[in-house]
Specification:
With 169 residues, the protein is α+β, with helices and mostly antiparallel strands. The chain has 6 helices and 9 strands; from the N terminus they run ββαβααβαβαββββα. The chain has a 7-stranded mixed beta sheet. Strand 4, helix 4 and strand 5 form a beta-alpha-beta unit. The two termini are 23 Å apart.
């Protein structure tokens, strides 16, 4: 399992862009996790699924609401990761109004979740292999803070906790 001091895995995530941005066209775009994190401080939070109750009502809104506070604390970007396809993540981003605040990154094959060891098997609940709920602060690709939730909990990966950690790092 990934831990503080580890380099994040170099895997391909996908982001749905509504319009051309930084040389990328609208629609699905590949995002190399390690290259995208180079020379940046990034607050990452991962959720078990798009449009799920806690994720939609509490997790994403907290990070979206505090996007400017994260920037003021020296965080260059905020990423939301979920084992969903890029089209679902794009629709969820539109629904949650994350544009310009939170990058909604699809881990469609669970490559990042598997490489970090932060998977959650919800097969018996009809959801298959997912990402565990967690947050991490990464600096230049290195994990500096990691908050992993116990199953079914939402206590340590929230925006307020991550923001306090970003401010103190």
């Amino acid at each position: 399992m990934i831990k503080v001091g580890d380099l994040i895995p170099a895997v391909m995530l996908t982001e749905f862009l509504e319009a051309e941005s930084n040389g990328s066209g609208p629609g699905p775009n590949p995002v190399d996790s390690l290259k995208a994190a180079k020379s940046k401080t990034i607050a990452v939070f991962a959720v078990p699924g798009a449009f799920t109750p806690t994720c939609s009502a509490r997790h994403v809104p907290g990070y979206t609401e505090h996007a400017q506070d994260f920037k003021d604390a020296g965080v260059d970007e905020v990423w939301c990761l979920s084992v969903n396809d890029v089209f679902v993540m794009g629709a969820w981003g539109r629904d949650q109004q994350t544009a310009g605040k939170v990058r909604m990154l699809a881990d469609g094959d669970a490559a990042f979740a598997k490489a970090t060891g932060l998977t959650l098997d919800l097969t018996g609940k009809g959801l298959g292999l997912r990402s565990n709920r967690y947050s991490m602060l990464i600096k230049d690709g290195i994990v500096t803070t990691l908050n992993i939730e116990d199953a079914g909990k939402f206590e340590v990966s929230d925006a307020a906790t991550m923001l306090a950690q970003a401010r103190s790092s």
